Amino acid sequence: MPIVSVILPIYNKAPFLREAISSILSQSFQDFELIIVDDKSTDNSVAIAEEFNDRRIRFFNNTRNMGQANTLNNGIEKATGKYVTFAHGDDIWLNSFLERHVTLLDQHSGVNVSHARAHSVDEAGNVSSGPLKNEKHPYAITDHQTALKRLMRGSYLTTPTAFLRKSSLPYFNNRFVFACDWELWLRLAAAGNDFLYIDEPLIYYRHSPNNVTSTATKTGINIIEDYLVLTTFFEKNPTYQKFKGMALRKLSMSTLRRSREIKDKETFFLYQKLAVVFSPTLLINPLFYIYLLIGLVYGHQGFGLLKKASKSIRSEKHRFRGKEA
């Protein structure tokens, strides 16, 4: 049996898939299986995956397009490793990814979940690198209650950096398309799992304006799903009901902020309405009316000007403080 099961769901990832698989196979830690599950891709993703002749690869095809949650669950069913991790078909792993996670979870037998930082890379391959490894505090363990309170404010885990003991891993809830990972983290924290955070980037996470999540953002579908994730969680976990108001206020403010990036006026106003539905107290927040006015008069360009003005003000403040010092 391998130590790690790497689950790689793919759907139309041809432009980046070869590099993604190569980065997995070239890990410094080699005791793993790579379970590739194709969700009926319509490009040449399958042909690219089949180019790799490696005994660690196990390839499966869904009988029909089943979506992200079901595809991930198919991979979990087939996993035989002690640990499980989920790769993306357009991300790139650093070669220490598996080694770092395995080493730390082996050292901390009472922890079932670990995750890490990530560099960003766009479709053109331009890299935005964050800080490197924190040498003084390379990792930290967040207790499950603290992790849960943070998760109620939104998912703070970069899912393709997550690493889990298979014995503690439930299935994804296939009711959710865009937030099935966030819903899983909420359940794991509520079940008493602490989270180990590796303060080091271990992957290059691909940001694309045309991926499923980005497309959903343009229509507001993912925002509605975020609301359903939270309300479902509180229905199933009445112990945490006292945090529901706070969580929905955070989602409301997040929705309001996201509206600044929406170019289509109709969708912009949908975001505004949803923000109020999630937390009606937003109606007494002056920021709501400022955003509404800017959207009505100037549209998306107005928020761009506001962002530039805010940046200039911050720069002037820093310059003034520097002179005072």
What does this structure look like?
By secondary structure, the protein is an alpha/beta fold. The protein folds into 2 domains: 4-207, Spore Coat Polysaccharide Biosynthesis Protein SpsA, Chain A (Alpha-Beta Complex), CATH 3.90.550; 213-319, no CATH class. Helices cover 46% and strands 18% of the residues. It has 12 helices and 10 strands. It has helices at residues 14-25, 45-49, 67-78, 97-107, 144-152, 180-190, 212-219, 221-236, 244-258, 265-278, 286-297, 300-324, and strands spanning 4-10, 32-38, 57-61, 83-86, 92-93, 113-122, 127-128, 139-142, 163-165, 195-207. Strands 1, 2, 3, 4, 5, 6, 7, 8, 9 and 10 form a 10-stranded mixed β-sheet that branches. The radius of gyration is 21 Å and the shape is globular. The N and C termini lie far apart (62 Å). The relative contact order is 0.11.
Structural class computed from helices and strand pairing = alpha/beta
Biggest sheet descriptor: 10 strands, mixed
Number of domains: 2
Strand content: 15-25%
The CATH topology of the largest domain: Spore Coat Polysaccharide Biosynthesis Protein SpsA, Chain A
**Strand element count:** 10
Query: What is the assigned CATH homologous superfamily of the largest domain?
Result: Spore Coat Polysaccharide Biosynthesis Protein SpsA, Chain A
Return residue spans where pLDDT drops below 50 for at least 5 consecutive residues.
none
What is the first-to-last residue Cα distance? 62 Å
Quickly count the helices: 12
CATH architecture of the largest domain: Alpha-Beta Complex
Mean pLDDT: 90
Instruction: Give the C-alpha Rg.
Output: 21 Å
Tell me, briefly, the overall form.
Answer: globular
**SSE string, helix = H, strand = E?**
EHEHEHEEHEEEHEHEHHHHHH
| CATH class (first level) name of the largest domain | Alpha Beta
**Helical amount among residues, as a percent range?**
40-55%
